[in-house]
Design goal:
The chain has about 425 residues and is an alpha+beta fold. The chain is built from 3 helices and 18 strands. Helix 2 packs antiparallel against helix 3.
Length: about 425
Amino acid sequence: MDKAIPTNERKKRRMRRAARIGLIGAAIVAVAAVAVNMSRSSVRLAELQTGVTDSGTIETTVNSSGRVSPGLEEIITSPISARILTVYKKMGDMVEEGEPILQLDLTSAQTQYDQMVDEKRMKELQLEQARINSESALREQEMRLKVKEMSVNSLAMELRNEQQLDSIGSGTGDNVRRARYAWETARLELEQMRSALADARAISSADMRLKEVDLEIFSRKVAEAGRTLTDARILAPRRAVLTQISSEIGRQVSAGAQVAVVSELDHYKIDCDIADNYADRIAAGSRVAIKIGKQVIDGVISDLSPVSSSGVIAFTVRPDNDSHPALRSGVRADVYVKTNIIDDAVRLPNGPYYSTGPGSYPMFVVSADGSSLERREVILGQSNYEFVEVLSGIEPGERVVISDMTPYKNQKSLKLK
């Protein structure tokens, strides 16, 4: 027969059972917490680039890029079609103004020039001959005119004599009429000769001016041919560095073909381009910041193309210090065109996270106790090469990850190791 269990004993058993269940539950919760904590992603803070937000001024910019080029570069072209006979210099040499760079075969050009000089001399002689012939013909007409004037005067005297004789009854009316007819005929011929002389003088003057203009035009052609012949000797136009040269002896170069380039490498400029949708934000005279590596050089837009080509606008930047050691021909440069100033802005150091301009960005912020990173949606505004404007989502003094966090874009938080 079973013995009844005392009430106190049953209570003790129930308490021990409840205690065991509680311990098992606590263990399960602890294990779950540890599992969750272990499954949570973690990163090393030392491996991340971070920045602390602060308040200050942001001079906003439009980003562009460009390539450093010599401040003054001159292309030398061949003025004639000829062969290269001799090359006096090589690329990289310093040349002085007027110093020969290369020699072209000028035989044909020299012969043509000499022929033009001879033709010019012939035209000068022809002009002189035409002037002498014209002056001789005019003098002859003038002499005939003087003779005619004398004849008219003589006939006028005869007419007066006949009129006087007729008045005293010694002459006849027929004699007076014949004398008057002879005088009037001679007078009309005299007027005709005077008009012909005036016309001859005008025609002679016009003809001589035409020949002089023709000679002037030809003289300019000869002078141009002389300058072309001089230029064909390919001399350095200034003291500079020879940065390119056609050095193949015997090569035929056509008129207008590039044969050399000289550059002044003491001063530089930046040749840039930018998307044409920024056209209303840049202008000639705009200040810029030029970043080459870690060096930042101030400058100004000196030239801006008025037209867009393939969606971009070209412009030229002149550095304030155009002989800065960081400036070397061919080096790529980041150019930031300054457009506006924002005072008392919440700002964050610029970094890879700011990739698409103003808008919403997921960013990780270091927690107050420094144990984790919390993801937030942050609204960012304008920027320059140093700072980005924070519109909302981050307060001044908070530390933010500014390196690329794309691998963790789906994580709401990250544990810091």
